[in-house]
Amino acid sequence: MCVAKCVIIAFALSISVVSSWDIAITTGDQLEFYTNKTKEKDEVGRFRDLTALAHDAVHNLLLFVDKQGDNASIFSYNLATKKSQPLVGRRSHESIQGLAFDPVSGKIFWPDTEDKIIYWTSLWSRSKTDIYGKVLLNMTHEIPRDIAVDSCRGYIYWTNINVTKPTIERARLDGTGREVIIDKDIYMPVSIAVDQRTKSLYWVDDKEGIHYTIETSDLDGGNRRKVVVGIHHHPNTLTVSKDSLYWVDWAYKTVWKIDKDAPPYTEPEEFLTFSNGNIKPFGIVANYNIKDQIEGIPECKTVWEMQKNKMNETFDIPTDSTFDVGLFCLHGEGSGNKCECIQGYTGDRCEISVCQNFCLNGECKVGSEGPTCRCKKGYAGLRCEKNVCNGFCLNSGECSINSDKPACKCPDNFEGGRCERKKLEVATTMAPVKDICNCTNNANSSPGHPVRNSQTSDSPLVTTTETLLVGDDFVESCAGWDGVRDPILMALGVLCGLLSLLCAILITKVLQLKRRPRIKKRIIVNKNVTPLTARPDQCEITIENCCNMNICETPCFEPKSTIRPNLLNTKQGKEEKRNLIANMENPDDMY
């Protein structure tokens, strides 16, 4: 008896601890619990990317979506036992952003925005064929995003975010009685919640542009009013508690709070802010006690009776055998309380694939040696982790895959297999026969074309035009007269010619001066020496190095006796020189 009391006390304490949180939030791979803006705890399992979140206050369960789960997408988390287990198998290309649970029928409801379908499944009794859920409502033009359940009155409510015709609709739990309750003055209702005590709907409308509103109405769409009107928020999910509204804002990565009965134009309170830039919150639920929701409400009699039974049977905690929750092996066969997994899977329920996240960009196959990858086009490596185009094309070239090999599309000014070479300038020549090129600017000419005179020439000379390709621009040049360039070139040419002529003259003069004989001799003439001949009047000439002198170089003195009298009084000049030469040609016999 004492042991039983201890167990009862311990369980009661665990229930009080479990119920101590205010809100729960899914963010990244974690399920976090907060009380008075303080994180109480977080639960991290084998999850990757948690999104939608729902709360079953009757059975003390949380239900959530892991959009990157191996083979299951919807899971349950028991707040008392702190155990999670898969509930619904994962479909390919699904997009679940809303989730709701009805504790009376034991049904889970979720919309798939990709398939435009609302699915359901029961947790009470089902076969393995029901693990992916059944179709409740199949839509053509509507795009269901979020969903809520009114267990007291047996309705489901959902939002349609097709901006061409957005609506808020409802139907019975079996899909019958579908009707539109809100279709005016609405743009994109992203989230919805039901307050069973006040018989009210709350929804978030992400208006066009920077505006958003949080509005409320009766369960049939009447008595509509706005609770919050704001800007610069990107609301995602909404939940309701006994006294307050909470919503997740992706713009600021913040959870905001406002009283349900706040007066108009009341500013919301910043409840939580997530500073991690890589992770943002998604789903949110408030710990709305079931007694506060349904006590004293006639329509909630069934839920109240169920709650009373659960209170009386508090110690009969719902187990897997009671709910038949997820008792299936996803990839294997059950053997007692264990699963025997097929090749390539592991885990308690064979829910973990060994190929999960193994091949980064390819298909994974499991063989005798383990997982192997078949890479997608453009990837290589053991796990297809290498992009063959990464860094292959240089100089801003565009890479593409051609026959499983990278190929580059180069910019206009580069070429080569990897765009590694700069393209050379290309010159082309046009040779008009009669047109004369006019290189002056003309307003009537178009860029990239030469301007020509209208006159024609009969000259056989051909004027050519060169076109230089520089990048994307065509530069025209021609061989005609340039008023600035050509005179300068002509002046330089004339100057060079004159300088060359002057140099030639100077060189000639220098060579001539080098040819002139330079006599380095000493000549001594003495008239007073003793004459060697019988001619006393003749002067004696002493010559050094006489052998080196020719007849023209030998100095001579003509005796005055031999000079004609008429020449004595004349000036020395040409006549004297002529006389001297004549005497030399007919010399007197000195011996």
TrEMBL record:
Q: Which family does it belong to?
A: Belongs to the cueball family.
Could you tell me which SMART domains the record lists for this protein?
A: EGF, LY
Reply yes or no: does the keyword Repeat apply. Answer: yes
**Which Pfam families would you find in this protein's record?**
Ldl_recept_b
The protein's GO terms of the molecular function aspect are: Wnt receptor activity; Wnt-protein binding
* Taxonomic lineage of the native organism: Eukaryota, Metazoa, Ecdysozoa, Arthropoda, Hexapoda
EGF-like domain mapped to chain residues: 346-385, 386-420
> Where in or outside the cell?
Cell membrane
Name the chain's protein: Protein cueball
Q: Which cysteines are joined by disulfide bonds?
A: C375-C384, C389-C399, C410-C419
Q: Which residues cross the membrane?
A: 488-511
Q: Which GO terms describe its biological process?
A: canonical Wnt signaling pathway; oogenesis; spermatogenesis
Membrane topology recorded in Swiss-Prot or TrEMBL = Single-pass type I membrane protein
